[in-house]
C-alpha cells in the first residue's frame, strides 16, 4: 500500500511506521525464539562439525566477532602431529570447520615458519640455543586476541622443544604467531623462555581489562615443583612481549593448571584445575578487586549436581556471552580422552555447562546434560528430561502377614508387628543378612523402602539392594553410623562409590530410594537426592534388603521400572519389517499406526504371502506383544500368526481383523531374549480376506 499510493498525512506516515516497527519487533522476537539451540553434553559422544566430522579443538580458546564465535583448538588426531583448527558458529552448538589456510593443508597455523625465523633471529642452531621445531615436540593451549594497534590477530601457545635441561629455557616457552585474518595463516614471530623470570608451566588465558590493558595467565615451575605457582603478566601494546609481571603467588592449596581469568562487575575471578596430568579434576577459584593486589582463595568451584571431577573435564575457559537480553557465562571444559592422553575413560572430548553466580558472587557449574542456549540473547534454560513411563514391578507392605516372594539368604527374617506389619531382620551379629525378591532381568528401575534401624552399634548398617546378581555382586544404598553410603559389591569385594554425613537415630523411620538408569545411580533419603554416581559394574538384577550387625525393620517396599517399549511398523526398513510376495501400501481405511498399512492385495487366501516384524530387543525379559490393524468387513477372521521367542515357536494364535481396529490387541506375554534377530511375529495370508500388516508392539513387563 505504501509503495502504490501517496501518503496524504503525517498521521498515516506515523501509523504506517509504527505498524512496520511492530512487525519488525515481532519478527525480531520470533527470530530470537528460534535462535535457541540445545547443547548436549555426554562423556560418551564426540561432537561433530556441520560436515559430520569429529571436532578436534583440545585446549581451545574462543573469541567472538560480531555474531560469530571463533573456536581455536589443537588437533591431536594424528599421533605426533600438531595442528590448530578453527571452527565457527553463531549459536555455540553447530560448528563449521574453517578450511586450512596453510601450505600443509592442515589447520590455520603454519608451523613451518618457526625454524626459518629462529635461524634469522639466532643464527644456525648450535648447542645452547633452543632446539628447532619438529612435530614430535609439544605445542598446546592456543589463546587468541585481536590487536587493534597493529590490526593483527595474535595467537600465543605453550611450546616445549624439549630443551628444558638448559636452565635458560625452562620447561615451556611462550610462542607468538600473528595473522592479518582470524582465519590465518598464522606465522611464527618469536618466543619467550622463562616469561617473568620463571620456568613456564601451563598457559592459561588472555584477558583484556576495562582500561584496554591485556594480560595472560599461566602457571610456573617453582624450582622442581612443576606448576607450583601462578603468574599474571601484562602484555606490551602489540601483544608480542611481556610488559610487566603484574602478580605472582605460590599455590598453597595444591598445585593448579589450566587457569582462566574473567571480570564480573568490579571483581576478578581466577579459575583453575588441579594439576593431575591429563586427568579430569575438581576446579577451584580465587578472587581479587585488584590484579596486582591480594588474591583470596575461596573454595572448590561448586558443581550442581555434585561432581568430584568437574563433570569429567579440565577447565579450558570461562566464556562471558553478552546478548540482547542478558549476560551469561559458559564453562568450557576439556576431556582428554584420546588414546594419546588417557586422561578420561569417556569418549567425548568436550563438556560445556552454564556457570551462574549467586547473590554473594559464588559461582556454580550447572551440569545439565542438555540445556538450551540462545547466544544472541545471552540466555539459557535447562532442558528438563521427560520422565519415563514407570510401571510397578513389585509392591509389598507385608499387611498380609507373610513374606511370600522373598528369599532369605542369611540372617533371621520374619514378618512382625511394628506399628503395622513389617519385615524384620532380628539378628544382631557382625555379619550380613540379605533377603531378595524380583526378577534378574530388571535393569532400569527404582527401589524404595521404609527402614527403621533398631540399634546403634558402631559399624552397623541397614539398606536396600539394587541389581542383585548374586550375593557377591550388587549395588547397596545404606544408612551406616551417621552416614548415607552408596556401594557396589563386585566379585565379593565392596567399593564405596559415594558417601556423606547423615544423622541416623535408632527406631526412626527413613525412606531409602535407589534409582538406576543405565550407568547413573542416585541414592535418596526421605525424598532428597543425596548421592549421584556413574558406574557400569552391574546392569541388571533383582532387589534386596540388607543389614549388617543391626536389627532393623523394612516396610512399604516399592519397585517401579522404566517401561521398555519397542514398536515395529510396516514402514520400517529390513530387517525390522520384511514381506514375502507382493503387498500393497494403503491409507484407505482409518485406524492404522504411523503413515500407512500393507494389505496382501487379494480377498482369496494366499499362503505364500507373509509379513514379519523383527524387533531389536536390548533388555531381555517378559514382554506383552500387541498387534494393530485397521478393521473392515473384508478382512480375515482368523489370520494365523507365528511368534518366535527365546528359541521357541508359538503357532496357536490367530487374529480377527474384522474387529478391534485402531487399538493394540494383546497377543500374550512372551520371554524375549536380548537380540535383533531371535524374536519375531509373522502373519500369514492363508485365511480368506484382505490380510493386513500394520504394526506390532513389544512392551516389557
TrEMBL record:
Swiss-Prot/TrEMBL keywords: Signal
Boundaries of every Golvesin/Xly CBD-like domain copy: 566-699
InterPro entries assigned to the protein according to its UniProt record, in alphabetical order: CBD-like_Golvesin-Xly, Glyco_hydro_beta-prop_sf
Key word Translocase present: no
SUPFAM superfamilies per record: Arabinanase/levansucrase/invertase
Matches recorded under Gene3D superfamilies: Exo-inulinase, domain 1, Glycosyl hydrolase domain, family 43
Keyword Signal among UniProt keywords: yes
Signal peptide range in chain numbering: 1-35
Domain of life, per lineage: Bacteria
Protein name: Golvesin/Xly CBD-like domain-containing protein
Amino acid at each position: 500500500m505504501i509503495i502504490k499510493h501517496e501518503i496524504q498525512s503525517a498521521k498515516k506516515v506515523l501509523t504506517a511506521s509504527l505498524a512496520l516497527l511492530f512487525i519488525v519487533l515481532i519478527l525480531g522476537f520470533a527470530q530470537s525464539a528460534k535462535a535457541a539451540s540445545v547443547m548436549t553434553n555426554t562423556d560418551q559422544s564426540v561432537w561433530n562439525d556441520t560436515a559430520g566430522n569429529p571436532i578436534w579443538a583440545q585446549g581451545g580458546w574462543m573469541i567472538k566477532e560480531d555474531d560469530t564465535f571463533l573456536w581455536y583448538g589443537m588437533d591431536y588426531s594424528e599421533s605426533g602431529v600438531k595442528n590448530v583448527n578453527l571452527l565457527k558458529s553463531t549459536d555455540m552448538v553447530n560448528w563449521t570447520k574453517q578450511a586450512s589456510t596453510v601450505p600443509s593443508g592442515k589447520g590455520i597455523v603454519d608451523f613451518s615458519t618457526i625454524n626459518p625465523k629462529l635461524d634469522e633471529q639466532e643464527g644456525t642452531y648450535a648447542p645452547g640455543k633452543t632446539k628447532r621445531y619438529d612435530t614430535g615436540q609439544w605445542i598446546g593451549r592456543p589463546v587468541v586476541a585481536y590487536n587493534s594497534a597493529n590490526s593483527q590477530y595474535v595467537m600465543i601457545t605453550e611450546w616445549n622443544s624439549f630443551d628444558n635441561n638448559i636452565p635458560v629455557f625452562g620447561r615451556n616457552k611462550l610462542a607468538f604467531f600473528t595473522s592479518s585474518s582470524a582465519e590465518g595463516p598464522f606465522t611464527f614471530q618469536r618466543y619467550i623462555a622463562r616469561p617473568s623470570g620463571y620456568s613456564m608451566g601451563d598457559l592459561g588465558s588472555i584477558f583484556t581489562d576495562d582500561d584496554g590493558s591485556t594480560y595472560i595467565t599461566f602457571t610456573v615451575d617453582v624450582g622442581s615443583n612443576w606448576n607450583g605457582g601462578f603468574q599474571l603478566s601484562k602484555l606490551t601494546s602489540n601483544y608480542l612481549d611481556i610488559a610487566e609481571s603484574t602478580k605472582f603467588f605460590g599455590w598453597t592449596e595444591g598445585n593448579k593448571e589450566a587457569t582462566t581469568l574473567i571480570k564480573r562487575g568490579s571483581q576478578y575471578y581466577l579459575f583453575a584445575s588441579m594439576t593431575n596430568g591429563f586427568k579430569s579434576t575438581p576446579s577451584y577459584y580465587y578472587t581479587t578487586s585488584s590484579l596486582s593486589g591480594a588474591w583470596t582463595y575461596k573454595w572448590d568451584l561448586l558443581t550442581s549436581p555434585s561432581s568430584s571431577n568437574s563433570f569429567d573435564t579440565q577447565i579450558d575457559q570461562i566464556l562471558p556471552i553478552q546478548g540482547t537480553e542478558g549476560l551469561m557465562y559458559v564453562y568450557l571444559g576439556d576431556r582428554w580422552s584420546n588414546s594419546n592422553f588417557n586422561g578420561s575413560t569417556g569418549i567425548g572430548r568436550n563438556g560445556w555447562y552454564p556457570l551462574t553466580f549467586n547473590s554473594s558472587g559464588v559461582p556454580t557449574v550447572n551440569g545439565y546434560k542438555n540445556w538450551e542456549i540462545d547466544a544472541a540473547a545471552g540466555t539459557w534454560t535447562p532442558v528438563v528430561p521427560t520422565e519415563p513411563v514407570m510401571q510397578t514391578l513389585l509392591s509389598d507392605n507385608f499387611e498380609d502377614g507373610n513374606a511370600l516372594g522373598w528369599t532369605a539368604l542369611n540372617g533371621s527374617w520374619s514378618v512382625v508387628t511394628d506399628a503395622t506389619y513389617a519385615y524384620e531382620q532380628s539378628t544382631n551379629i557382625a555379619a550380613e543378612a540379605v533377603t531378595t525378591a524380583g526378577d534378574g532381568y530388571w535393569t532400569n528401575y527404582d527401589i524404595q523402602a521404609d527402614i527403621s534401624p533398631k540399634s546403634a552399634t558402631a559399624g552397623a548398617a541397614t539398606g536396600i539392594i539394587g541389581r542383585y546378581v548374586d550375593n557377591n555382586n550388587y549395588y547397596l544404598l545404606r544408612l551406616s553410623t551417621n552416614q548415607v553410603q552408596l556401594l557396589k559389591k563386585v566379585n565379593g569385594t565392596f567399593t564405596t562409590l559415594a558417601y556423606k554425613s547423615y544423622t541416623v537415630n535408632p527406631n526412626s523411620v527413613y525412606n531409602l530410594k535407589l534409582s538406576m538408569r543405565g550407568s547413573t545411580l542416585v541414592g535418596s533419603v526421605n525424598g532428597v537426592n543425596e548421592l549421584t554416581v556413574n558406574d557400569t559394574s552391574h546392569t541388571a538384577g533383582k532387589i534386596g534388603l540388607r543389614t549388617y550387625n543391626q536389627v532393623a525393620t523394612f516396610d512399604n517396599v516399592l519397585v517401579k521400572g522404566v517401561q521398555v517399549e519397542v514398536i515395529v511398523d510396516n514402514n520400517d526398513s529390513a530387517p525390522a519389517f520384511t514381506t514375502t510376495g507382493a503387498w500393497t501400501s494403503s491409507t484407505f481405511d482409518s485406524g492404522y499406526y504411523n503413515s500407512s498399512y500393507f494389505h496382501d492385495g487379494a480377498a482369496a487366501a494366499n499362503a505364500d504371502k507373509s509379513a514379519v516384524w523383527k524387533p531389536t530387543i536390548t533388555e531381555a525379559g517378559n514382554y506383552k506383544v500387541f498387534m494393530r490393524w485397521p478393521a473392515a468387513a473384508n478382512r480375515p477372521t482368523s489370520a494365523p500368526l507365528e511368534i518366535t521367542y527365546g528359541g521357541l515357536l508359538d503357532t496357536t494364535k490367530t487374529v480377527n481383523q474384522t474387529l478391534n481396529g485402531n487399538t493394540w490387541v494383546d497377543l500374550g506375554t512372551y520371554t524375549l531374549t536380548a537380540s535383533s534377530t531371535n524374536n519375531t511375529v509373522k502373519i500369514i495370508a492363508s485365511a480368506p480376506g484382505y490380510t493386513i500388516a500394520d504394526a506390532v508392539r513389544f512392551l516389557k513387563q
